[in-house]
Amino acid sequence: MHGYGVVFSPPDLIGHLSHPVQARLYCLHRGVASPGADRDGRTRDELMLRLLMSAIMLLAAGLGAACAEDRTERAEDAASPSVQEPAEQRAQDSAEEPEAASRPAPVFAPEAMSEPRRAAPDSREQVQLSFAHVVREAAPAVVNVYSRRVINQRARITGDPFFDRFFGGPQTRQREVNSLGSGVIVDASGVIVTNNHVVAGAQDLRVVLSDRREFAAELLLADERTDLAVLKIEADAPLPVMTMDASGTAEVGDLVLAIGNPFGVGQTVTSGIVSALARTDVGITDYAFFIQTDAAVNPGNSGGALVNMAGELIGVNTAIFSRSGGSQGIGFAIPAEMVRTVVAAASEGGRVVRPWLGARLQAVTSDLAQSFGLDRPQGAVVAELWPGGAAERGGLQRGDVVLAVDGQQVNDENGARFRFATRTIGQDARLTVLRDGEELTLTVPAEAAPGVLEGQRLSVEGVNPLAGAELVQLSPAFNEENGIDPFARGVLVFAVSPRTNAGFIGFQPGDRIVSFMGEPVEDLPTLARILRQNDGAARWPVEIDRRGERIRREVRL
Predict the structure, then answer these.
(1) Contact 29, 1 (CB under 8 A)
(2) SS3 at position 69
(3) Sign of the CA dihedral 303, 304, 309, 310?
(4) Distance CA 303, CA 242 (A)
(5) Is pTM, for the whole model, over 0.90?
(6) Residue 294, φ and ψ in degrees, nearest 5
(7) If residue 352 lies in a helix (H) or strand (E), which one and from where to where?
(8) What pLDDT score does 330 carry?
(9) Which terminus of the chain faces fewer neighbouring Cβ atoms within 10 Å, N or C?
């Protein structure tokens, strides 16, 4: 037997043990022989220990018998009819024994050791406190999503010019990659929502229902910016549906269930609570606004349901924070408000068009809160407005503090963007604004970002440094779609063909043209005119912005 043990002894007995004997007790417990053994193989300490243990056992047996006898007597007294004493007799007895009346009851008396009273359950719900009724309602609408794609993989020997010469160039082989996730049926006709990273690049999609029926799936919409995707399957009969939470009133501490297929073991339900709301600093998607939960979420749960106690979908499980790859009690789900917007876009044409506020916001720090007269940091301050944008036309001004959107509190730009983006194009949003110490309510129209979504483009030809480059006009619509600062203006290098002037000079996709031939470049027509007027020139002064760094060069052709 290994490990240390603790021996509790009565105070009057333990006092007779010396410290060396106690040390040996621990050694014997680990199976280590004690020194000083006599010829019979027994030591004096072992004999003392045996005597002590025998005495303790006898003492315990005696106490047990006494307690049993006392319980028997009490049972007999309770069973016999009680006799009421006259009041005079009780008073006389108490007067004759004043000391007994004032003497406290023994601490270990049976009356003092009685168990606390427990109330019996008075309803079936209290007897069977369970999430089973929620699971029965919600689980049939959660499915498994299997995706398959084929990728080209280079052979190990390629990349070396010596081997390429003998094997006829780089060698590749095809490899099949399978991935697993979960999904939620949101329409009885077979519309399923899942995560975009579950189906990204898939060449074949299969969906398995909770009753083991399997269907081929069609991808209706994939929205990388929100990490959501919408699938469609064709079934012979209406499918079970999970209703989305329409109230948006989830609170920290609410009980929730996470339903999915972790590690491919099969449909699994875990429980937890809402740990936090409006997590905007996670950085998983462009519209970072997540519900945090401590319900166990593992690989394979992506795209699965986060369900409240009414059996409603309040979020789609998307990511976890983990150092090991498994659940550590920090999971993130996309709120149902955004899920509803993406599903509606898929049913209306397969393209997500989000409202754009037209204002650049920044979080209110402690110093800013003090200058605005706030008792604490809250809201987001307007730092910049797009000329003629929805925010400016709605009455928003620089320096205003946006406290809430449609009654929902916001504390940074991501929170305001999310709340505004969940509105439908054509609707109005109510902004609660603090201006000069006074709260105002402004109505801002939900409109798409101005500009061409694909971007106005120009393929450059001629004798100039940009020959062979494809340029695009920056606009809020194009910038939002491609993850560029929506307030960025000018012309961007979108692509560069190899073995051209632009490629040899070193232009890269993402470079923003600031000036050409000493003239500022604000749009494509301006740059096209400059190139046309100076075609064939020997020297070209150029200024570009590359990832925030200004680079000036004079290019000679």
Answers:
(1) yes
(2) helix
(3) positive
(4) 13
(5) no
(6) -100, 5
(7) none
(8) 85
(9) N
**Cα–Cα distance list, 297 to 161, 305, 320, 480, 497 (Å):** 47, 10, 7, 31, 45
Cα–Cα–Cα angle for 95, 100, 104, rounded to 5 degrees:
135
What CA–CA distance (Å, rounded) separates 549 from 551?
A: 6
* Other residues' Cβ atoms within 10 Å of the Cβ of residue 525: 12
Give catalytic residue positions: 197, 227, 302
Both tokens of 293, joined, read 């939960």
| Bridge partners, residue 219, by sequence | 231
Rounded Cα–Cα distance for residues 356 and 413 (Å): 12
**Of 218 and 157, the one with more pLDDT:** 218
Q: What are phi and psi of 316, to 5 degrees?
A: -110, 120
Within 13 Å of residue 200, how many CA atoms lie on the same side as its CB? 12
Q: Are strands 290-293 and 268-279 parallel, antiparallel or unpaired?
A: antiparallel
Question: Which structure tokens are listed for 455?
Answer: 């971007």
Residue 316: strand pairing partners: 305, 334
How far apart are the C-alpha atoms of 238 and 316, rounded to whole Å?
22
Mean pLDDT of 439-451: 91
**What is the rounded average pLDDT of the residues 369-377?**
85
Which amino acid appears at position 186 of this protein? V
Q: At which residue do the structure tokens 């052979």 appear?
A: 155
Amino acid, res. 352: V
Binned at pLDDT 50, 70 and 90, residue 533 comes out as very high
The closest alpha carbon to 385, from 444, 437, 472, belongs to 444
**Dihedral over alpha carbons 25, 28, 30, 34 (to 10 degrees):** 120
Confidence of residue 541 (pLDDT cuts 50, 70, 90): very high
pLDDT(24) > 60: no
State which amino acid sits at residue 106: P
One-letter amino acid at 34 equals S
CA atoms within 13 A on the CB side of 381: 17
Q: Looking at the DSSP assignment, which residues form a beta bridge with residue 215?
A: 207
Domains identified in the chain and CATH numbers: 1-36 (no CATH), 137-232 (2.40.10.10), 255-348 (2.40.10.10), 359-445 (2.30.42.10), 457-556 (2.30.42.10)
515 forms beta bridges with 520, 543
Tokens standing for residue 340: 């509803």
What is the side-by-side order of every strand in the sheet holding 142-154? Answer: 214-216, 204-208, 142-154, 172-187, 191-195, 228-232, 218-223
